[in-house]
Amino acid sequence: MGEPVTExxxxxxxxxxxxxxxxxxxxxxxxxAAQVSVSNPHEAKMAPLRELGIACYxxxxxxxxxxxxxxxxxxxxxxxxxxxxxxxxxxxxxxxISIAAGLSLSTLExxxxxxxxxRAMPCLPVQALSGATAVCAGASATPADVDLALRIxxxxxxxxxxxxxxxxxxxxxxxxxxxxxxxxxxxLTRAGVEHxxxxxxCREMVLTTMRGTCDQLLASGEHPRxxxxxxxxxxxxxAAALKAxxxxxxxxxxxxxxxxxxxxxxxxxxxx
Length: 272
Fold this sequence. Notes:
Elements: E1 9-12, H1 16-27, E2 36-39, H2 47-51, E3 55-57, H3 60-64, E4 70-73, H4 80-91, E5 95-98, H5 105-111, E6 116-122, E7 131-137, H6 143-154, E8 157-161, H7 167-173, H8 177-194, H9 199-220, H10 224-230, H11 237-267
Parallel strand pairs: 1-2, 1-4, 2-3, 4-5, 5-6, 7-8
Antiparallel strand pairs: 6-7
Helix pairs in contact: 7-11, 8-9
């Protein structure tokens, strides 16, 4: 369990991320259901959250009128400006946490005058309470606001405070990581199948081993290189396999991150 969240948290948007934030606060045990509320124009999307005892609203203004301590804006980047302008009067004076990619702190602060803005960049595994989130404070955000954002997203996995200029890199390295990992699992499974393993059994064993490896690395704090040495015997099969893999993988990962950052810049209008 993470650090307790005793403040009242309202989440605008009940999509994959907004729903994960609201549900995760309760499922992780860091917050009581009575402290969490969520709004979404589509009632059906909030049904699983109602089952957890979370207050649900189809009208965001009505939810914010209840006086939450913090508001998480969990709507798509292209929708957020309209939502922010519509709710600006109710957001003024509050801690507002945006999870919209590509919208800078200066843009968000201009949309919501008087709000204490924090940016957060979560990744998809927060749905399983095992994701990572980078948090960045706006000009008016207080240390208490930052602490609250870290506790909210810390309940969903790992949350770290970063500078805004670091968020793009974090969003590629961490935000794209689930796809990178899934691709590696798929390739390793396909290699196993090519050499005679049943696909479903191979995939299950690969995933189970990957989870165990990550759990051990997190629990021990051990450097990955030191961990690799434990399963790499001199002149053994792992040493031979790593020799074949490492150089190509190093360049492939580097090129993948570079490509992701280049595309991020294009989407943000920083290039071209």
